[in-house]
Structures are given as structure tokens and as C-alpha cells.
Amino acid sequence: MGNRAISSPRLFIECIVVIMSTGHVLLGLLAERPQHGYELKKEHDQRLAGAKPLAYGQVYATLQRLERDGFAEVAETRQEGGPERTLYAITEEGRAELERWLGTIEPPAPYVAGGLFARVAVAGKAADGYLVRQREAHLARMRELTAEKASGTPARVLAADYALQHLDADLRWIETALARMKEEGDHA
Amino acid sequence: MLEARGLSKSFGRARALDGVSVEIAPGEVVAVTGPSGAGKSTLLHCLAGVLRPESGEVVLDGRRIDTLGEAELTALRRQSFGIVFQFGELVPELSAVENVALPLLFNRHGRGEAMAAAAEWLERLEVADCADQRIGELSGGQRQRVAVARALVTGPRVVFADEPTGALDTLGGEQVMTAMLGAARAGGAAVVLVTHDNRVAAYADREITLRDGAVLAGVNP
């Protein structure tokens, strides 16, 4: 985001983890219409079906940060008997930031760091049995996701597709690894 | 309902199946997976009575079918089994509706009755518009739906599908799978699905994994 946010390494990491994802998603939702924190949370969870639901604390912390950076502003504060309700709106600067983010490509993951790969790297050929069990667990999850797709909303179907194709990539790697181990075993 | 006990089959010196036992329950959807050359298609063809195993037996509803004579086996296949191949294997000289009617005509149903039933199946699989078109005029997805209709028109006990989405893109494959499994479930048919695609295998209730002609131990839920 703006240079102001990248003032220390810790803040920089926080930027990547929190603002680079949630902040931009909230900006995208605010670009459609001004909303309360509560609405933003609901809309986020619905649109990013399959992602971890957003905690209220995170919604408000992110909104404050967006406000501080000039990307969002308070459009209205109202208190009718209940708790104070703040309506947030996107600013022109916020729209420009959102445009920038939407046009930026995600860097293709440069290295492999999953627990699946780490186990095989440590165990070597002895990982054979583990891989067969992991394969079964992956497939069981793929069956669940496939069943969910039959009755899901369009957002859920998109999320399930995303999960299914990533699990499938893992599975294809598992199968290749098993075939390589077998080949090495045959030649040994 | 359909059971294989200790099936073995070789082609020349290559052993395709090595003592494979599987059991398919009525209405169940089972994926047969495994790397190329693991014996998937050979198992499917033995179960479907297309190939005869060298040893072991295939039993349908308590009746041994691998020892039946050719004529009896052909009749049983036409009545109890439906097959969907990767490339449809439809008759190019006939229209879509005639292709679907074919198994009924072989089973000695009248032409009018067969054509009406075929048209109804095309409607169910949402390809009624293609009824009078030749196979060459259809898209890959439409062809596979016609092949599914042809496999289900006789009300089979088991539908065998060998890489039914192998020639289709992701969404086309998804539509064919949904159509095939929906139609099979509605008719109470079991489905044995050979695939090397995990996303297709995920449609099944369970999976049988073959490796080097044998069932891989410990992977079946």
C-alpha cells in the first residue's frame, strides 16, 4: 500500500499478511457502496466462501488502517438506541489503490514449503506408506467438496473448484513421487 | 451384486491383472484409478464380460458370467450392462437418436418404441436438440451425453465408463459426470468408472486403486 505503511519490517510483514488481502477485499466491497463493519464481515464471508470467516476485531482494525492511510473514510456515524454504527466509504485514493491491486499479478510461489513435501524430504523412500495415506485423505476431502458443489451457491462452487484443483495438484505430485520411489527401488 | 474373485489376465508376457477381487453393490459409484498400465481397463472389460479372465470368476447376482457361451454373454451384456467409452464410440452413419435406440433394437424392441425411449433419454440428458444430427456434427460433450443415453436406455444394472471425460475440458467433463451419475442414480444403476483424473474419481462413493495389476492395499474406505 502507500509508503507510510512500510515504515518497519514488522509493519511490512503485517501489510502483506493483513492489508494485502483483507484490506483490498474490504476496499473492493466498499467500492460497491458505503457499508458498516458488520455488513462488510457478512459480505466478505459470503463472497470468499471457503476462506476463514473474518473476525469482527480484524474488520475494525483493518478499517482503521484503511482510514489512517486515506483509503477509506467515515461517511456517517449514527446512534439510535443501540451501539454506535459507523458507515465507511471508499475515498478517491482508495479507488486508485484498489485499481492498482486488481491489476497486479500474484507472484507465482517461488518455493515449496508444505508439510506434505517436508515429510517426504525428511523420510525419503520411507515416505511411501505416508504418501498412500495422505493420498486417501486428499481424495476423501475431494469427494466432500465435489458433493458440496452439487448444491452450492455460485460463490461456493468457485471456492470448491479452487480447493479441488489445488488438492488435485498435490495428488498428482504424490503419484509422481510414488512412481519415482518405485523406479528408484526397481533400479536399486 | 457384481463380484470379481481372484481375476488374472495376461497379454503375451505382460500380466495385466494379478489376482484382483472387487465387489460392487447395487447403485454404488466406484472409481477404478491407478497409473497407466495398472490394469484399470482390463479389470473393467473383465467385469463387463468383454474380456474373459484366465483365472478367477466374475459373478453377477449370484450367477457366474465369465463361463457363459458367447451368445448368452452378449445377451447379458445388452440387458444388464451399459458402456461409455472415452470417445463415445457412436455409429457415425446414424443420427444421435438412432444411436441411442440401437441397444433396444438389438434387444428386439419395436422400432417405434425404441425411438420414443431414445428420444426421452436424450431429453433427460439435455441433448434433445441434437436428436436428428449425425455424430460428426456434435461437440465432444454432446457426443458423451449421447453415449451416456445409449448406455442407460436399456435400464442396466451396471454402467461401465472408461475415461468418460478424457476428451473433454473441465466444465464439459463436469456436465457429463453430473448428467451420467444423476441418470444412473435415478435408474438405480451402479457405476464403475475408470479414470486417471482424481477430480473425476471424486464423484465416486469410493475408490479402488490398482498398481501393477493388483488392488493397492489399505486405500479403500
Automatic annotation (TrEMBL), chain B:
This is ABC transporter ATP-binding protein. SUPFAM superfamilies: P-loop containing nucleoside triphosphate hydrolases. Residues 2-221 form the ABC transporter domain. Coiled coil: none annotated. The keyword Transport applies. PROSITE patterns: ABC_TRANSPORTER_1 (PS00211), ABC_TRANSPORTER_2 (PS50893). GO terms for molecular function: ATP binding; ATP hydrolysis activity; transmembrane transporter activity. One of its GO terms (cellular component) is plasma membrane.
